Amino acid sequence: MKNSIRFDLSDYLIHFFRDVDLGGDSGIVFPEHMGWNNVFEDEQLPAYFLLRAALRTGRLWSTWSYRGGRRTVFGPDPAVCFTEMPVAAFLEAGKTRRANGEAMSPLAFAFPKGALQRLGARAAIYGLSADVALPNGDDGQERLLPDWALPSHEQYRYVTHFIEDSKVVDWMHEREWRWPYRSRSKGHQDPGRTISEWSDIPGLDFYLKKIEGIGVIVETRRQANLVLHDILMLIDRKLASHSTFGFVLVSDNLPSPNSIQGRVQLKNELEKSMVNLNRFYSLSHSQYTYYVDSFAKLVARVEATTAYKTDRDYGGCWLWLHDNRADLTRALLQAGRVVVTKEGHYLASLHEFSDYRGLRQREMMTTQLAELVFRQFNVPCCFYSVSQSDNPEDAPSYAGQHDRDISFYNTAYREHA
Length: 417
Prior knowledge:
alpha+beta, 417 residues, 5-stranded antiparallel β-sheet, elongated, single chain
């Protein structure tokens, strides 16, 4: 038996998320605009909101990991941090440390270790052989070690470590790995800096890097369903592929973290948590025909039973399907009748409606259609329109009555049960 087959080793590097108080000592630089479907209204950002925001953008931000206004990442390069803790140990630590008010949670991405190592991630260096006076880094300033103690391009890996009678600084239990952001072309996470767009924050673009087999670790089945919505949207928009994601692990479904301590037990749980997307892309011919034909008949019925009005206001109008996992949505997408916008709207074309009808009337007709679709297929939906344009990507856009709690939105102002 190989000596690497041990319960305390892992094939994954985990990037976990924590609840963030933007006004606190451990706050982060957060952009003013995270996309219209990521909605936050105060300074309290829950870990799950941040996980979904990263999932949707495909980027892990490189930071200096400020604590008390001081950088904890040394050297000239900010970094993305990971832990090599086995999944069982991570879940136990995440739940315990969150309960103690520490900066951790059991919500995370799990990346294959080999993939990140090929991209330049390396294990942290705990302490130095030389006796070096550490730069203070007051007021968030750069903390550079002398090159003779550690070359500058390796300093992102350094973690302070010393054990004395009077004081102990020991973070080796984190089993940290870091990926350095080498480019200086974009601004870094400096305190007091205002950033307008999420894309202005440098980081690791894991979709562009073509990483495969990424795991997502959540707590509840509801969270897993929302993650699945996001995964489908990313694949449908061709931002990710069918092989990008490996599993979605729901920790509340486990008897305890100890139940996956061994490699065999973990393997079994991950196999049960595999992301199986086949059913969303392999409707039978009879299912496909039923949904496509039935939908067309509903649209035609609304057209045939609605009298013409004289208004001639111009614009495009679609049926916005809120559930991208529904068989109806998948069939219409397969038929080319649904487009997915860059913001993640699933919009069904309504070509049975006469072009001679004005936009306002078509909005009312689409509202009637939404009621029929919900009644027949149990798929929530509403109208979505763009004035003076037939391009769904154009603004301004309008939508009918819908609940802010639909999967389309990632919100920070309510609890995700």
